[in-house]
Amino acid sequence: MTQTTAESPTSKQRAQLKVRTLRTDRWWLVPALTFAGLMSFLIYGVWAIFDKSYFAEPYIAPFSSPCLATSCPEGARFLGLAPFGDWYGLPPGLLILGLPGGFRLTCYYYRKSYYRSFWLSPPACAVSEPHKKYSGETRLPLIIQNVHRYFFYLAVVIGAILAYDAVLAFRDEHGNWGHVGLGTIILVANAVLIACYTLGCHSCRHITAGRLNHFSRHPIRYKAWTFVSKLNARHQQFAWASMYSVMIADLYVRLVAKGVINFPFA
Questions:
Q1: How far apart are alpha carbons 88 and 95 in whole angstroms?
Q2: Can you say whether the dihedral through the CA atoms of 198, 202, 205, 206 is positive or negative?
Q3: How many beta carbons lie within 10 A of that of residue 78, not counting itself?
Q4: For the chain, domain boundaries
Q5: Contact, 137 vs 121, CB < 8 A?
Q6: Each residue of 49-92: pLDDT tens digit?
Q7: pTM of the model
């Protein structure tokens, strides 16, 4: 009878290493850059929520849209509505920021990113993690990640509202159509990137035709699935591009509102 040793390929025991990894490259660079990128988004988001300069006709900052409180300026209210009153004096952005925030937080790509960069679980391939146990997403709080599909539905609504804001940016401060400023271009570019990121979501790909057994019987859904799959192949790139585009667009509007940017065609 053949005995199984620790070096045998049939052994159930892992190789015991005295070092964290045998990799000699800069494996730490990607998680470090990811950590810096995500932290910059979080820090900016906290500042933007409490900043009150979010509207400069015809632009509204994406982090504060849709503006649904009575404290919103008349021109900033989405469809003229203010169903939430003054919301106890809290910033209007708090009413809706959790919707796109929840979508990104539960996004498959972002989960991989912050698991590796914040929790080091694991920080990189072939690098051991500091945690002794692994339960995946089977218990609280990570089991909540399963609500990602429902955040997708809400994110589609927010994306449509940002596209609506981009269309309104073609008006001037008097409401006349035909205005094209730098802010218009920035808001349009942001709306496109947000749409590409949202529609490239894995949940969207599954919803369009993920459960079909015969594509030939559903040609329209197959075409939609094909389009979404192309976006999904670049989901990581759209995730980063849209994250920074919404920050840039938001900051630009706030700087215009503060008077920091006041050049012609702003």
A1: 11
A2: negative
A3: 17
A4: 29-257
A5: no
A6: 999 899 999 999 999 999 888 888 888 888 888 777 776 677 87
A7: 0.86
